[in-house]
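Design request, tokens follow.
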């Protein structure tokens, strides 16, 4: 067996072992790794720079998972580095990902950022779909759509029932779920919402929350109030500047810290490597916007 094949086999065995290590405490409703997670990155296949095969049904946009040595994945790591540098005291952060208008790349940014954070094995990371109107993370990950956040907020399901495993052991996922006749603002604004987000914060080093666009519905503003900060996605050559400004004003009016902006789809000469996700850059949006 060649070295690469051996490395891939070993990595898969280790991945299976780690998945088995994650236990769910159904009594308390919390999910914790059974043992202290490794502090190094043990995945030989990834270290060898080999692309991983996409799991059946997973979306090819999940580049941070299956092609971690690509330029695009490197750009997500730059974003991760900036986030970590803003969080010098290693406080747990709950970050919402939003944009001003639909289809700017919020979901793809959120999921790739979550996988990139999950590369740091001593972090527990949670990815939450809070876009009840156009939820798509379950489809991207090829995981069940419900029960999810909606059922959790409505008190119809507990943490154990909504938290799903992903192929990365220290990355968990909560789908949007089914509103069952309730409205999104009603559920997100309910008194049950704050303790739920605080629970995420207490259990996970990073919680990444996918949201709807900030200018079209109020959800992002409501979700942002439960979060440490918001990451604004801006699509080059597509997002109208006045709408970006409006989204920023709306978030600021709700006293929501804007942790930073991700500029998506920027083309830079030589940066493409034949892949359609060209360039990502993270900008600090103010001096004292460190996540709480
Ligand atoms: N960085 C990127 N570069 C190029 N295309 C991208 C990028 N990010 C996302 N896309 C593409 O843009 C489209 C919309 O992406 P995505 O679903 O992430 O947007 P969204 O802002 O979450 O949309 P919605 O408002 O519907 O939730 C998809 O076809 C996706 O493949
Ligand atoms: Mg989306």
């Amino acid at each position: 067996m060649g070295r690469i094949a051996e490395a891939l086999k070993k990595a898969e065995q280790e991945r299976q072992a780690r998945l088995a290590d994650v236990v769910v405490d159904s009594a308390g409703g919390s999910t914790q790794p059974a043992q202290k997670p490794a502090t190094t990155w043990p995945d030989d296949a990834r270290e060898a720079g080999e692309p991983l095969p996409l799991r059946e049904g997973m979306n090819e946009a999940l580049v941070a998972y299956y092609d971690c040595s690509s330029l695009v994945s490197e750009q997500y790591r730059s974003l991760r580095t900036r986030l970590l540098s803003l969080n010098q005291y290693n406080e747990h952060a709950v970050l919402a990902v939003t944009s001003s208008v639909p289809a700017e790349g919020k979901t793809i940014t959120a999921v790739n950022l979550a996988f990139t954070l999950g590369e740091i094995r001593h972090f527990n990371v949670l990815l939450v779909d809070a876009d009840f109107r156009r939820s798509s993370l379950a489809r991207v990950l090829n995981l069940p759509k419900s029960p999810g956040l909606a059922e959790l907020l409505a008190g119809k399901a507990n943490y154990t029932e909504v938290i799903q495993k992903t192929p990365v052991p220290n990355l968990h996922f909560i789908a949007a779920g089914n509103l069952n006749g309730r409205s999104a603002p009603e559920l997100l604004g309910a008194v049950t919402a704050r303790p739920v987000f605080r629970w995420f914060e207490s259990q996970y080093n990073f919680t990444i929350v996918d949201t709807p666009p900030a200018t079209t519905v109020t959800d992002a503003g409501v979700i942002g109030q439960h979060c440490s900060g918001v990451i604004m996605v801006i699509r080059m050559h597509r997002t109208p500047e006045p709408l970006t400004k409006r989204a920023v004003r709306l978030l600021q009016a709700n006293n929501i810290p804007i942790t930073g902006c991700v500029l998506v789809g920027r083309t830079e000469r030589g940066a493409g490597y034949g892949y359609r996700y060209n360039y990502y850059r993270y900008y600090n949006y103010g001096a004292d916007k460190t996540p709480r």
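Comment from the thread starter after seeing the answer: thanks! Residues 3-21 form the longest helix (19 residues).
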